[in-house]
Design brief:
four-stranded antiparallel sheet, single chain
């Protein structure tokens, strides 16, 4: 199993992307909280903010935002390549296309 993006820890949960899946693991117990199938790969890193987790899917060219506690999709937005990892600042999510 290969890790495709940087590990991300927030609110006692470890998030990682391996083999076209995102995983959320409890940092204390190591238990799997949820997993999410990604059609492509996460480009290049995950972003956590306000109980949301966002990433860019390189196959579908979408910004995907999921609920960090459950792994359920919150929102998807189409992007035009090339693009950079999302950045969050002053209550605003930025993606440079």
């Amino acid at each position: 199993m290969s890790v495709y993006s940087k590990l991300l820890a927030a609110d006692n949960i470890l998030y990682l992307n391996t083999d076209h899946r995102l995983y959320a693991l409890d940092l204390k117990s190591g238990d799997l909280k949820w997993k999410f199938k990604v059609e492509g790969t996460v480009h290049p890193s995950l972003l956590y903010y306000e109980d949301l987790l966002s990433f860019i899917n390189t196959k579908t060219h979408e910004l995907v935002i999921i609920l960090a506690k459950t792994g359920q999709i919150f929102k998807k937005n189409a992007l035009t390549p090339p693009y950079q990892s999302p950045v969050y600042s002053n209550n605003t999510l930025f993606v440079i296309e």
